[in-house]
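Comment thread on ticket #2218

A.B. wrote:
> Attaching the input chain for the structure job we discussed in standup.
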Amino acid sequence: MDQNLNRLTLCGQVAEAPQLSHCSHTQRFYRFTLSVPRLSGQVDLLPVLAAEPLLQQADLSPGCTVTVTGQLRSFNNRSGEGPRLVLSTFARTLTPGGESCNCIQFSGVLCKPPSYRRTPLGREICDLILAVNRRYGRADYLPAITWGAIAQQTAALSVGDRFTAEGRLQSRVYRKKLPEGELTRTAYEISVMRPAELWEFTD
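C.D. wrote:
> Ran it. Output below, let me know if you need it in another format.
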């Protein structure tokens, strides 16, 4: 099994047109937002980061449907503004059209003890932070959430254990109280659907 698995496929409508994010080694990178519907009718608003040459592969005007394949990447925000861990989809390909899709397959090592709890209605939840290695000695730190029987299983994991699963990337709006007032922020996390033993994949 791939020890550095991080594959993400999204298909939805462009909610915000690409805007320049940053430059790296003379390459320009642009960020846009993709609206991906859930079966419940809610939508996840997910950030996508793409190198400038990829922008020619599909119409990225608001309302256009596009399929994105790539990886879920993390960035440690040290500015003191916004969340500390910034997540975005790093695009490898952009394809016009497609059917609604939100699927990530990943394999990582647990880097913090699991956080297990119950909701007021008694539903079991377990939060995980996983380190997924990539090239050049770097790693992405991905938050994941498990439910029910899977939450019970993952609650027994220890730091350093490997966890491989399939899920969906979701957005969640929350409010944070600060001395200057209350701010509305958006968090991104993987909602785990199936651990590795319940699915197979091919390269």
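A.B. wrote:
> Thanks. Noting for the ticket: The CA atoms of residues 155 and 183 lie 31 Å apart.
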